[in-house]
Design brief:
Largest sheet of chain B: 8 strands, parallel
Distance between the termini of chain A: 28 Å
Radius of gyration of chain B: 18 Å
CATH topology of the largest domain in chain A: Rossmann fold
Oligomer: heterotetramer
Bound molecules: flavin-adenine dinucleotide, flavin mononucleotide, FE2/S2 (inorganic) cluster
Helix content of chain A: 10-25%
Number of domains of chain A: 2
Strand content of chain B: 15-25%
Strand order of the largest sheet of chain B: 3-14-13-10-9-8-7-4
Strand content of chain A: 25-35%
Order of helices and strands of chain A: EEEEEEHEEHEHEEHEHEEEE
Helix content of chain B: 25-40%
Structural class of chain A: alpha/beta
CATH class of the largest domain in chain A: Alpha Beta
Distance between the termini of chain B: 20 Å
Order of helices and strands of chain B: EEEHEEEHEHEHHEHEEEHEHEHH
Number of helices of chain A: 5
Number of strands of chain B: 14
Largest interface: B-C, 45 and 44 residues
Number of strands of chain A: 16
Number of helices of chain B: 10
Chain lengths: ~260, ~325, ~325, ~260
């Protein structure tokens, strides 16, 4: 079920340059069905900014009804979220979308999780759940530069974690795609900038690959057709998927990136 | 006593609040959030003869107190709407207003003829004002004589009353309104979106793949109010008002301007429960302002005292 | 190096930022807050032949991210503007753009002829688009041929270049722009305000005594950007853009759309220091985006790569 | 000099139903020249609400650089101000306008201060200053109802204070204008709703009367012609005064109310 609710902010801190970790207590945590789902956040009570902001659920704890989001402060909306303080209420709609499928890898198999920048957060709960299930989990986390690195230790607890930076200031220099080549895996889960997703999709046509997409959104629930992408396997151009309600996670090839 | 019911051509509404076309799809998503029979009516997404994928993404951009959209009339096409969407919607006892779009006259006629024959379609909304479609559309929405002709032809084939949706992107909205009334329109819905654009600071290029988009939301409300105020004084058919409605107070303002019912678009994205919330709040607002029935508010901005219904306050 | 200077017909501007007409009076009030020579230019309040008291109050109303005004061109009249305001302004080394208004052709001609002869008036802004004046105005701003004729006649008598201020309340802004260019306009300023209205929840009546007013502020920015984008591609005279500018980033967006300079109106009421603040911030924004000079930004939204000036980023 | 500044909120409390007393520390307090001036407050950092709100300075203390405003929470803007808390910054422009003239009454003479509702606040500093100067000060304060009454005690310290309520729930029932008739005075200062001001102006054509007006404002500094009223003593309709910069205080007869 999708709920709209005033969640309560439990904590908020800057964990890397302009990267914030926000923990919220909300009833809707009970309804989260898979890692990779997201919430749609109203950033002001007024009319400006008007639209909600989609942010992935990075991890959650159903018992405590808490979830953690990790976001980058970039524009007006995320700047307003960054100003919120513990104890304050935050208007959230969710859980939205379909998350990563866990049943595509079995115990003993290897899952490779590849995240780029702000695409990393939704992979964290996935990593936790896969590891708990007994899957071997490997992580490649790409950041622009040293100051942007976050959650390396957290991911490391679940399995090998390789960090890359575009400028080589931390970890290995270069693209996550270069590293994927070095590793074997049964299933790959990824989230990050479109060019990265595209490269991964094209590089492993015969593998099980799941990608989480981003698109500008209106409603966030599938009604407005703002976030549509073309179905990859359809002959006619009129076949489509909605990132908000059919995604944000798709099987590679399911949609055109 | 129901203080919110409204009688309009073809429409017996329990309350005057309905989601605006394109902001509510065909109702499936919102039906998971609340009972659709609470709504006065539903204006479904524009339907065209053939399925349309619409424009490339990004399709939406935010603006101050508003948003731009360039969906491009994405819809599954007449056949599927009739075969799948309308039958699904028929489980709810709520009037459906079908939004009819096209590029050439025949398109409108084909869709209007077929869709108006569906059992739960109580009225048509002739969309001659979508700013996001490159071909045809423009002339229908901006040249009075063309609009009159189209209205007339659609009326001839429609089994249900026809409301014509006006574009605000014109020099003279009154002329357009008179033209569609002369063409036989049973009502007017207004306003559609204002044409606008946003540019990306980094690239310098438009944010929307379609370049321009339609501006909606609270930013446009003063324009909508002004146009409804002007039009309602010169036509004798009812107006369903829209453009930036977010609250029960906004609804009253649209009634004052001259509307007899109100559609809510963009606000559904801000708060998916906005329609039932407004419906719940309206009686309190009527109490506060001293009205027995919401219909007393229609046209209050320009009606002479003698024309006004009883007002307690 | 000055990265902000702009050369326009009649105007050698140190920077492209100027207060918009009607939002800065004749500069006296703001001169107490900061040094007016910091401004690129000043667009002074509309001047008419005779003094005008303007409309009754209330003259302003707030809207979401915008405001309505119906000042009604209050001004002390041509004689006093020439005898008192312009001489006072001449103490500041800043170009003056005189906004010329009227109800009939002769009014415009009289004002243009006299005011263009004043030493510190470097250009005229022909206000054919004020929505708050009942008589005359409308036709000048909405009928291309009428606008062309008026522009031509004013050009004949003016000693300085003539910029024509376009109204956004038209179906086809491109036609209007072409018409005034054909009439000999040296430049275009756009946009004036959108006609809007707000109603009082308690009385049901319009808040503004004038009933309707002109909508300005951030709410209208997407409409302004779209219109400048369209017009700048079809005329070869420069555009001074306005409509919702609040920040240095907004200025860049207007340049991208096709403007060569920018006027700031409503934002002066929100922050009376907004013009010098924007001027101070522009170089940093240019740095961030990788431009040497602000003129590189003009028309970037539609220019082909080959047409673009060097861009570092 | 007019300054725009981020003042600091020292305290804020609700002193009657929906009536708030807000104390701000700001440099611009130094520039206040007379009771009855006002400040123009920006109520949000964003674009909505857009315009500033004019609020009178109710009292000030130049040494401590503090001023107190009293306002009624009515619409969106004042509701936002009411949410602000001590320690927060508030964007204010001022001091604006011309206040009440003190030199129109001499020591030993009697000044009558007549306030209606939210027109009462600017009279408080005036009362303090007149009393300090040795003028006999009488006050008539009109409120709609008991719960709206504020500052009765404060005014009482300076002189006789008669409170009226429209509904008779507190003090005397009826209009302030009825009470004025009972009192003698050399100079009358008033602020309140337009009908009240009009009645007072018409009732005492031969007396020294000063009225503080309200009008919807744009700039607040005299540039936009939003707040204009017609000059009372002018034959031509083109003669006018601006409430923000020529007022808000005018001599009776100077402008048409
Ligand atoms: C399904 C999904 C999950 C996401 N999860 C995360 C996450 O976990 N952490 C995180 O930092 N970011 C995430 N994003 C991106 C996040 O939504 C944007 O960073 C955010 O909307 C920017 O808002 P702003 O007001 O700061 O920026 P502005 O540029 O001021 O926003 C203007 C408008 O554009 C939209 N917009 C801007 N960038 C994006 C974007 N990348 N994707 C979608 N809409 C955008 C905004 O929502 C808003 O409507 C996710 C996006 C999607 C679609
Ligand atoms: C010189 C002056 C001094 C004032 N001093 C005080 C004071 O000390 N205490 C106090 O409570 N109020 C005072 N007011 C009135 C105060 O400005 C309004 O109550 C306030 O602007 C309402 O804003 P809002 O957003 O709550 O209401 P809304 O109705 O949401 O405001 C909408 C718009 O209308 C304007 N507006 C609404 N009412 C008024 C009004 N009465 N006067 C001017 N503009 C208005 C607002 O500024 C805003 O632009 C004063 C007004 C003026 C002109
Ligand atoms: C995302 C979106 C899609 C829309 N699609 C349609 C449509 O298909 N047909 C139509 O007539 N109007 C469409 N509109 C216009 C709305 O029905 C409405 O007229 C307009 O948005 C103004 O109302 P609002 O400010 O409440 O959104 C659309 C608006 C939005 C925001
Ligand atoms: C209070 C006010 C008065 C105005 N007076 C004039 C005027 O006298 N002449 C004119 O050409 N435009 C006038 N305008 C329009 C502005 O110059 C400008 O075109 C418009 O407000 C859009 O810019 P903005 O959004 O930055 O305010 C006025 C606008 C406002 C808000
Ligand atoms: S955001 Fe509305 S359909 Fe996806
Ligand atoms: S508010 Fe602008 S002149 Fe008074």
């Amino acid at each position: 079920m999708i709920r709209k609710e005033l969640g309560k902010i439990i904590s908020q801190k800057e964990i890397a340059a302009d990267i914030y970790e926000l923990t919220i207590r909300a009833e809707l945590v009970e309804d989260i069905s898979a890692p990779g789902q997201f919430v749609h956040i109203r950033v002001s009570n007024g009319m400006d900014p008007l639209l909600r902001r989609p942010v992935s659920i990075s991890s959650f704890n159903k018992k405590g009804k808490q979830m953690t989001l990790i976001y980058r402060k970039s524009g007006r909306g995320t700047s307003l979220i960054a100003e919120m303080e513990p104890g304050m209420e935050i208007d959230i709609l969710g859980p939205l979308g379909n998350g990563f499928p866990l049943d595509e890898v079995s115990i003993g198999e290897t899952a490779l999780l590849v995240g780029g920048g702000i695409g990393i957060p939704p992979l964290y709960e996935l990593s936790n759940q896969l590891a708990a299930k007994g899957v071997h989990v490997l992580h490649i986390l790409g950041f622009p530069t040293e100051s942007a690195v976050f959650y390396e230790q957290e991911f490391s607890k679940n399995g090998l974690t390789i960090v890359t930076t575009d400028d080589g200031t931390y970890g290995r220099k270069g693209f996550v795609t270069d590293i994927i080549k070095e590793l074997g895996f049964d299933c790959l889960y990824t989230c990050g900038p479109a060019p990265m997703l595209k490269a991964i999709e094209q590089g492993y046509p015969d593998k099980k690959v799941f990608l989480s997409l981003e698109e500008r959104m209106g409603c966030g629930i599938g009604a407005c057709f703002a976030c549509v992408c073309q179905s990859g396997n359809a002959a006619s151009g009129a076949s489509y998927k909605k990132v908000c309600s059919d995604g944000p996670v798709f099987r590679a090839g399911e949609v055109l990136i | 006593m129901n203080r919110l019911n409204v009688e309009l051509p073809g429409l017996h509404l329990n309350n005057p609040i309905m989601p605006a076309s394109g902001c509510f799809g065909f109702g499936r998503e919102y039906s998971r959030l609340y009972d659709l029979t609470r709504l006065g009516a539903i204006m479904i997404k524009a339907t065209t003869v053939e399925p349309r994928f619409g424009n490339p993404t990004p399709r939406v951009a935010e603006t101050s107190a508003g948003m731009l959209n360039a969906i491009g009339l994405q819809n599954p096409g007449l056949e599927k709407v009739i075969a799948e969407e309308l039958p699904w919607l028929s489980q709810f006892a709520v009037p459906i207003i079908a939004n009819v779009a096209g590029s050439v006259e025949e398109d409108y006629i084909t869709v209007a003829k077929e869709i108006s024959r569906q059992a739960n379609v109580q009225a048509l909304e002739l969309n001659i004002s979508c700013p996001n479609v490159k071909t045809g559309g423009i002339a229908f929405g901006t040249i009075p004589e063309v609009a009159r002709q189209l209205t007339k032809k659609v009326k001839e084939v429609s089994e249900v009353p026809v409301y014509v949706k006006l574009s605000p992107n014109v020099t003279n909205i009154v002329e357009m309104a008179k033209a569609v009334e002369a063409g036989g329109a049973d009502g007017i819905t207004m306003i559609n979106t204002l044409v606008g654009m946003r540019l990306d600071l980094k690239t310098g290029k438009p944010i929307l793949a379609n370049l321009t988009g339609g501006l909606s939301g609270p930013a446009v409300k003063p324009v909508a109010i002004r146009m409804i105020y002007e039009v309602s004084q010169v036509v004798s058919i009812p107006i369903i008002g829209m453009g930036g409605v977010q609250s029960a107070e906004d609804v009253i303002e649209f009634f004052y301007a001259g509307a007899s019912a109100v559609a809510v678009g963009t606000a559904n994205f801000v708060d998916p429960f906005v329609c039932p919330t407004i419906i719940d709040e309206l009686p309190c607002v009527l109490d506060r302002l001293g009205y027995e029935h919401i219909s007393e508010c229609t046209g209050r901005s320009w009606k002479k005292d003698g024309q006004l219904a009883y007002h307690r306050a």
